[in-house]
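ok trying again, last paste got cut off:
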Amino acid sequence: MNEQRRTFLRSATALVALPLMESSGWKRFTSVASATASLNAPPKRMVCLGFGWGVTRESWYPDRNQVGADYELPAGLQPLAKHKNDMTVIQNLSNQFSTEAHWGSTFYLTGANRYAEPGQSFHNSISADQIAAQSFGRETRFTSLQLGCEKAANSGHGPGLSMSWNREGKPIAGLDNPVDVYSKLFSGEKTPLAQRQALLKQKRSVLDTVMEDAKSVERGLSKNDTNKLTEYFQSIRDIENRLSKEEQWLEVPKAQPREEIQEPVGGDRGADELKVMYDLLVAALQVDATRVITYRQPVESLIKSLGATITGHNMSHYTSGVRKAVSETRDRKQSELFGYLIDKLKSTRESDGSRLFDHVALSYGSNINSIHYLTNCPTIVTGGGAGFKLGQHLVVEKDTPLCNLWLSTLQGLGLSAKSHGDSTGVIKELI
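nice, full thing came through this time. structure:
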């Protein structure tokens, strides 16, 4: 695995990664505990953005006959014209197991079969971002960051708390407003250190008791109950890992971005909320608080902020007239905001002077085409993190698994993933 290394502080009980600093020097070698690490390049990051209710098919997708670099941007993507050479639009990616539109995003990053477990009505597996987080999250304060929106289950995404799912196929909670995101990333700790240490110790004590109680009923269980208990033990181990992470970073102040970010006051909705979340996303990457981020974006509040009086669901069932007009306006605004994010990534500099954009693998799209169609998921990739060939329009073979993109991304980031979900291989045209 080609994973970048950083300077560490060691003690008898903790291993803590220092923030990325210019004075540490990107182009020299530093010896830490007899290990020599190369610091000649910034770390790679993975960011997945998803939105509900699909797009306007007639005006979002490029002409299928115009493939490669010489294609015309449709009206829905026109606000991204300045970034055309730095992004690739992909058509025909689908999730073969997502046969119910309102569950589409549940399996968006996993490619799992909901009915894979006999006798059960729901099954899921680990999402692509969490595969990356298992490696990239070792050296950062937050293993990964899940951003979301209020009333996500009603925003065309389907059930769930975020776009991310853990190793047991359980949903990972997300932060659904800018105030909470800012507080998690940058607010100073007001609780005294000794009190925080005591609280962590108390959590561990409770966890130990729960674990002992669970082990006492382990014998004589049925196969199904044994499987449930195994999942439970894994959940306990995950909590232990999170507590260990908290302990490692307990005495390390939260790094602040070079350009001060105004603390959100709350109440922002729609387009303003998206913009603030994008600012916080970039800042989190810049200070290396995390290297893996997913963002489940709002749709209902976005179209309302644009003056619409219909729901996202009604918008997605457009034919003509008002519904289609709202859908097209939403497409353009989302593209405009996505362009704003790309601008921010390009203008933000790493410690070695390179652009943050060049070290991020960024995907953008929806689990739904439009209405309830789950084929040809709208997909754009950008950023230099995965080494993709950008500046093109790809029309891959019909019903190519969406997980082929996630597998391509993971391998492009230097991870040794051989498959993911229902993948059948990488997308060769991207390599």
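cool. The chain has ten helices and eleven strands. Confidence is low (pLDDT under 50) at residues 1-38, 153-160.
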